[in-house]
Amino acid sequence: MNFEQPKRELQPDQVEAPEAQKRAKEPHFISSRLLEVLGGTKDATKAGDLVDEGAYLWGAEDRDKGKGIFRHVLLTSRVAYFLGKSLKDKGAPEYQDIDLKSLVEGAILHDVTKLYGEDREKLSPELKSAIGIDEGFREISSQVDEKGVSWLKDLGFPPEVYEAIRGHDFPEAVVENPYWKIILLADYMSSQEIMPVKKRLEDIKTRWIDQQIAKGEEPRIEPERFAIAQENIEKVAKEIFDILGTEDEKFIEDHKLNSDE
After folding, report:
1. Cα–Cα distances in angstroms (integers) from residue 179 to residues 32, 54, 103, 190, in the given order
2. pLDDT per residue over 87-127, tens digit each?
3. Helix axis angle, 114-121 relative to 63-90, nearest 10°?
4. What is the pTM of this model?
């Protein structure tokens, strides 16, 4: 999966190989601004090259976890791009003016506060109190999303990017924002591989709720909250795939989303 910067202008004496020409035509790219945020440089061209340098954004203390989250957001951006482009090609009015560059950036950054939220949830009551966090603070909360929105605003990203992450984590309501809907759907089709929404939600329920309860531990998300989120995610999925006249499994297959092509 290649994420390319816009093709550079070649000097008259430079010749590009066919493979380089093919890569240059691929839709995925990262702006120089985003590369800097991820810890790369303006000369970097592939997001894959940034796994080590960029994983810190999602947790430097646990690099393996950071890399796992980084893979997830790259897959999310892959799905989001193809969903967005397909909706534009279909002429869907609500999605006709989608800026694919902003859509890809929003998808890559949708989990920018994941480790931030996890770390604060694990703090002792005394530490939470000392830094002004409620004792019952959870990773999955509007406070965490709002922190991400604030960060991205401060970095100069446009509303198309930062509004797309607001309330995306197990949504309690559907947001009438085309970027939000596409990234939400892409998020819940992407784990460490791309899969249909139903399979992804079943996997989350198993790991986050059922297995935790079986071990006598508190679920990472309340079953009631999960049920509401599941209904909202499935509602968005139905809306988008009805417009496209297909289903998620066929969409994955048709666009070869799990291949290296």
Report:
1. 21, 24, 6, 16
2. 999 999 999 999 999 999 999 989 888 777 777 788 888 88
3. 130
4. 0.77
